Amino acid sequence: PPAKRQRTNVNAGQKQQICQHKKAHLHLSLAEMRNWAKTTLQIEVGTTTMHDILKNSEKWLAVTANSVDTIKSRHCKHPEMEDALFMWFTEVRGHGATVSAEFRERGICFIVSGVQDFAYFKGWLANFKSRWGISHHRLHGEADYSPDDIYNFDETGLFYKLGPSRTLATAPVAGHKKSKERITVALFCNASGTDLRKPIVIARAKRPRCFGKTFQPTLYTEYFSNAKAWMTSVIFQEIIRAFDHDLRFQGRHCILLLDNASSHAVTGLQLTNLKLHFLPPCPTSSIQPLDTGIIRAFKAHYRRQLVQLYVNCAEEGRIQTVDLCQALQMIRLAWRNVTATTVN
């Protein structure tokens, strides 16, 4: 690749001279102005920089001789630190890493941790990127996915029998032991909210007694079981293979955003129509879509049904409890009640 042009700091006085020369020679092109600056001012100015200077010519022509030296230039206060930071940036990009905001700030904090008299702030970062010619770019070489084809998958624990912990009363009331029966619910939807796939439930029993002989859990959810009611790599791969098969049947190609949970292992998994994209470790809610309020809305809809069920039980003099059959039906309905507006 061609050698990178060394950056040149253009001070306010030089910018004023450039604008004055252009004003006197309006016919000159950007390339001719760059050649003039190189021969007359002994500075090499990039095409974009030249364009920006001339675009703000009114500002630079208005600068007085007394104020030229007082205008801040973008000289680097810690050149060795910035050299190290740019070397780090070049290295991680050379390995194909996507330098997101979170990833970038980790690198900055690591490199500047030993630098005294330095305070990280967004203004410095903007100047650093400007000094080194770093800007945002769309990733090419990958398909541009529409919101309909961008999916997110995440799990959450659900204490499906746990009712409210507070109540209205005229006097203090005796409490009762809280249920700790937990199941795992995995939710799966696209970015536009047009495809809320069937919820996935993982419980402890393969076929609880409440199912009887006729109840079919797959009418409401995808149902799995193991001793701890947790997601495992075996269950995960079965889910992903089924989704890839559906996409292949529909003739669609989609991308699935996932966190780096150990249960999301994909060793030996062969997919044709689905691309898996793993989010950075320990993702925050800002980059884990289902954590931005979607799971919370789902649980709120479930809790509303559970409270109504318990009220009905109290009115009819029955024990306030719920079995897994009822829970699966309420999970399905709660997920359907999550609107596309909430998702996107």
TrEMBL record:
GO cellular component terms attached to this protein's record: nucleus
Domain HTH CENPB-type: from-to ranges: 69-138
InterPro entries, A to Z: CenT-Element_Derived (IPR050863), DDE_SF_endonuclease_dom (IPR004875), Homeodomain-like_sf (IPR009057), HTH_CenpB_DNA-bd_dom (IPR006600)
Keyword Aminoacyl-tRNA synthetase appears in the UniProt entry: no
GO molecular function: DNA binding
Keywords linked to the UniProt accession: DNA-binding
Protein name as annotated: HTH CENPB-type domain-containing protein
Organism: Latimeria chalumnae (Coelacanth)
The organism's taxonomic lineage, starting at the top: Eukaryota, Metazoa, Chordata, Craniata, Vertebrata
